[in-house]
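Key result, reporting period 2: structure in, sequence out.
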């Protein structure tokens, strides 16, 4: 692939310093060290994304952060911190002016006069890997005037940073996803300096490019807490939890941290029904366990206590998605050991049972099993369609059945298959539009003056055959992203009642951020609004007919959400 090899574009001195850096054992940060690293995080992100020199564009920022993080931490005063910042950033940003906040320059220097084309960075989202929907370029400044940004970095240090430069406009080519992953994994995951650098790099990207930072928790506090925890983490597994707690501050349903994921989990289906953990599916060889039983303790720990421990590590925009994800986390068995489950059977007897861990493909297969056949008829003339199980073959063989149906129940409680989107073209005799997908256009730091790139959406002209029957959509707290594009189209176009629970409240293309040590952070990279322009994030699709599964109904074999939807599709409710 024809692209710039960022890793080999580093100044040789930077590469040498990375190789020679000493590794420190975990230890707590001093107050001075924390202030120094906070300033480092801010300055690194400012130069990386808003100082448009060739040197800054070609820098491997992971290498820079890992190489210098402990040297910066050790500065004993603002003046010493300025000197260390000068050594790090002067080769990349020669016009950057750093000074101790207590001794500002006598007069603010004027920006150098323009000579030739003045350029500045323009980001369409965070361009972290390629190919991607997100990209960045150095573009000509509209008024041709140089600009200087005053920065208060913390740690007693301030700066004046030009955000324009004399250069020809040039695009930025990010590394491929595979190259970014390989580079990230080259750093030892158990090193203190790697942990600190990863926090610094992640914070800067998300600070400038996460489109919903206004709805997140205290992101500055997340940096402080992340640095303090990272400095003490003994290994990569402990640091993964530090990153997870930091990312959870974003309140982003796509937000996640991946690192040596558990290879096994519990082969069991369970749901949170009437504030209880209820077994909904089991493998055929499960012993001493019963579908419909309530689990109250796992490995001797109360279920609610375990959930309370997990919740701070889970990134979610809504309570319903938080519960959905926490139940998935309960299934993880990193060491592959069996779990001891305790609870109460459907007839009220206490039980204790051991459940062996299984490969995740077995766990997923069990979770995807359904008691209802796709394209079956829960009521005469009403066809049930599980969007997660629609295939290309169904689009060829089931069209006549759907066109003749008096009602169709579309189940969006899972994650729709790729072919399922094509069904939208047959639901109306008019052109349909999805929610609005909008990339943030960032030209200034700190979320200032962000604009969004128009109103991109799916546009679905009507196709034959038309499905004229009553349409009903089923939703739940586990409906996220693509499922919400589906549900958002259904809601915005007023195609019929929506039955069940509110969706996850998170949609839009994700963005992967590889960090040194092999840690992968995923976050939502664009804004999504409903068709009427209102917020989707943290709200989701609210059902017009709220229905919750009851424990008695489940034990009696009823899917109460589906049954209500089928009644509406039949015209009986």
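The corresponding designed sequence is given below.
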């Amino acid at each position: 692939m024809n692209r710039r090899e960022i890793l080999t574009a580093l100044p040789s001195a930077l590469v040498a310093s990375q190789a020679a850096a000493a590794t420190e054992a975990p230890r707590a940060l001093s107050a001075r060290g924390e202030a120094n690293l906070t300033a480092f995080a801010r300055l690194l992100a400012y130069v990386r994304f808003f100082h448009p020199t060739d040197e800054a564009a070609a820098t491997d920022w992971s290498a820079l952060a890992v190489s210098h993080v402990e040297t910066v931490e050790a500065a004993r005063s603002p003046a010493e911190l300025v000197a260390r910042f000068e050594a790090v950033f002067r080769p990349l940003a020669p016009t950057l002016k750093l000074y101790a906040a207590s001794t500002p320059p006598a007069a603010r220097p004027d920006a150098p006069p323009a000579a030739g084309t003045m350029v500045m960075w323009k980001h369409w989202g965070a361009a972290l890997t390629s190919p991607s929907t997100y990209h960045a370029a150095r573009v000509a400044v509209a008024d041709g005037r140089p600009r200087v940004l005053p920065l208060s970095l913390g740690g007693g240090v301030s700066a004046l940073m030009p955000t324009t430069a004399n250069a020809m406009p040039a695009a930025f080519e990010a590394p491929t996803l595979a190259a970014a992953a390989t580079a990230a994994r080259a750093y030892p995951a158990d090193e203190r300096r790697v942990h600190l650098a990863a926090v610094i790099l992640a914070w800067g990207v998300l600070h400038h490019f996460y489109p919903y930072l206004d709805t997140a928790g205290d992101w500055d506090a997340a940096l402080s807490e992340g640095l303090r925890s990272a400095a003490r983490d003994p290994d990569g597994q402990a640091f993964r939890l530090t990153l997870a707690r930091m990312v959870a501050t974003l309140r982003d349903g796509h937000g996640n941290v991946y690192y040596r994921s558990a290879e096994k989990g519990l082969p069991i289906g369970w749901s949170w029904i009437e504030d209880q953990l209820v077994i909904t599916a089991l493998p055929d060889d499960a012993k001493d366990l019963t579908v419909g039983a309530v689990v109250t303790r796992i490995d001797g720990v109360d279920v609610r206590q375990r959930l309370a421990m997990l919740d701070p590590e889970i990134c979610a925009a809504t309570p319903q998605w938080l519960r959905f994800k926490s139940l998935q986390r309960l299934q993880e068995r990193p060491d592959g050991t069996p779990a001891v489950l305790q609870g109460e059977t459907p007839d009220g007897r206490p039980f204790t049972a051991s459940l062996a861990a299984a490969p995740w493909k077995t766990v997923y297969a069990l979770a995807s099993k359904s008691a209802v056949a796709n394209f079956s008829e829960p009521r005469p003339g009403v066809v049930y369609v599980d969007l997660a199980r629609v295939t290309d073959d169904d689009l060829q063989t089931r069209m006549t059945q759907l066109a003749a149906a008096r009602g169709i129940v579309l189940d969006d409680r899972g994650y729709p298959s790729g072919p399922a989107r094509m069904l939208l073209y047959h639901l109306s005799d008019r052109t349909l539009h999805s929610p609005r997908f909008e990339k943030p256009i960032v030209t200034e730091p700190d979320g200032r003056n962000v604009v969004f790139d128009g109103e991109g959406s799916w546009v679905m002209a009507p196709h034959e055959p038309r499905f004229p029957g009553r349409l009903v959509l089923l939703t739940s707290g586990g409906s996220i992203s693509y499922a919400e594009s589906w549900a958002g189209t259904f809601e915005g176009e007023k195609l019929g009642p929506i039955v069940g629970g509110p969706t996850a409240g998170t949609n839009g293309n994700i963005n992967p951020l590889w960090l040194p040590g092999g840690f992968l952070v995923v976050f939502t990279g664009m804004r999504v609004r409903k068709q009427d322009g209102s917020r989707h994030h943290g709200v989701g699709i609210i059902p017009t007919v709220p229905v919750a599964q009851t424990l008695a109904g489940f034990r009696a074999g009823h899917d109460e959400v589906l049954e209500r939807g089928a009644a509406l599709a039949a015209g009986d409710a």
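The first strand starts at residue 97 and ends at 100. The CA atoms of residues 230 and 238 lie 9 Å apart. This case is discussed further under Risks and Mitigation.
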